[in-house]
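For reproducibility, we list the full input for the S-adenosylmethionine complex.
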Amino acid sequence: MRIDVVTIFPEYLEPLNVSLVGKARTRGTLDVRVHDLREWTHDRHNTVDDTPYGGGPGMVMKPDVWGEALDAVAASGEGEGEGAPALVVPTPSGRPFTQELAVELAAKPWLVFAPARYEGIDRRVIDDYATRWEVHEVSIGDYVLAGGEAAVLVITEAVARLLPGVLGNAESHRDDSFAPGAMADLLEGPVYTKPPVWRERGIPEVLLSGHHGRIARWRRDEAFRRTAAHRPDLIERCDPAAFDKHDRALLAELGWEPGPDGRFGRAAGAVEE
Ligand code: SAM
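The corresponding predicted structure, in tokenized form, follows.
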């Protein structure tokens, strides 16, 4: 996969040289190219922003500079037989970034990231590229950062670990929280490693039992407990057909009950864990 990032702070993307993403780059699984947006400015001050039409505080990133930059990045892929890239624009007003979107982006051959600063990029840039490229406006959470570079790091890491050959153990992301499959829509429960006793704290006996069925059951129960405590919305959204008898009993014990449509909700008066 090829990833281009256009930013006014190329040094902010240094972490892409480290750990999993860094190794994927060294191995050639991931081709990451970071570009300084100011290379496409033409004035003495390398201006990338201007005052907003309609007034108001803050500055807006200029469409002409972004347009030249994105055209140049796209042109650099032409000789390499790449089609049009998918453009990823981090913004708090975008679609929430989820594991599902990470899987979708991991299937693309080429992503171009346009992280903004100030009050964001002139809207016409997104509208213009959306006529030719696939464009994803993505939010990494309900908070406002000073710039989109941290969002690029988050999205790139989530995507890169899904690429074939990037994780040492291909099974590693199978049971992740939010991973599609058996534990879909449940958060992952606690994990333990050696030593068996640390600061007088042992580990759950079942994990030493070697009994795969009991271990799987315990993991599922813990996933339910954690999801009920931290993300009740995920349980509320779950298709109850995915729950077995044991799940239902555990949910009842945790203070949940099925509503008229069969979906589970917190019973009135249930105490939060
Ligand atoms: N006024 C803008 C708004 O409320 O939508 C916020 C602009 S923010 C100060 C500057 C840039 O940081 C954004 O254009 C975006 O690139 C990035 N950013 C901030 N919060 C983000 C979030 N939650 N997810 C993704 N990108 C974010």
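Residues 118 and 157 are 24 Å apart (CA to CA). The first strand starts at residue 2 and ends at 7. Both points were considered when choosing residues for closer inspection.
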